[in-house]
Amino acid sequence: MLILLFMIFIFLALIDVPWLVRKEYWWELAVYSGLMLTALIICVMMVIDAPFPAVSTEIGNFIKSIFY
């Protein structure tokens, strides 16, 4: 499953990255790379059944620390 996941992300990069480089959209390429890396990490964590932290609890604690 991980091999298929990596192949999909490589395929997406092969479609998008050459166009961004040809047009010299360096900032967009950096943002694209960061978002794709984040998505890849989350997808790999989902495939290997890694536990995810409760984001809503952390956001709630952060808001409480600011306003209370």
Topology:
Elements: H1 2-22, H2 26-47, H3 55-67
Helix pairs in contact: 1-2
What does this 3D model show about the protein?
- Helix 1 packs antiparallel against helix 2.
- The protein has one domain (2-67).
- The longest helix is centred in the middle third of the chain and has 22 residues, at 26-47.
- The chain has 68 residues and is mainly α.
- The protein is built from three helices and no strands.
- Helix content is 82%, strand content 0%.
- The radius of gyration is 17 Å and the shape is flat.
- The model has no long low-confidence stretch (mean pLDDT 94).
- The termini are far apart.
Write a concise synopsis of the structure shown.
With 68 residues, this protein is mainly α. 82% of the residues lie in helices and 0% in strands.
Shape estimate: flat
Number of helices: 3
Q: Would you tell me the overall average pLDDT?
A: 94
Poorly predicted runs of 5 or more residues: none
Number of strands: 0
The Rg value, from CA coordinates, equals 17 Å
Calculate the terminal CA-CA distance, rounded to whole Å.
Answer: 46 Å
What structural category characterises the helix and strand content?
mainly alpha
- How many domains, as an integer? 1
Per DSSP, what share of the residues sits in E-state strands of 2 or more residues? under 5%
| SSE series | HHH
Instruction: Kindly state the percentage of residues in helix.
Output: over 70%
Describe the sheet with the most strands: none
Task: Name the features.
68 residues; mainly alpha; 3 helices
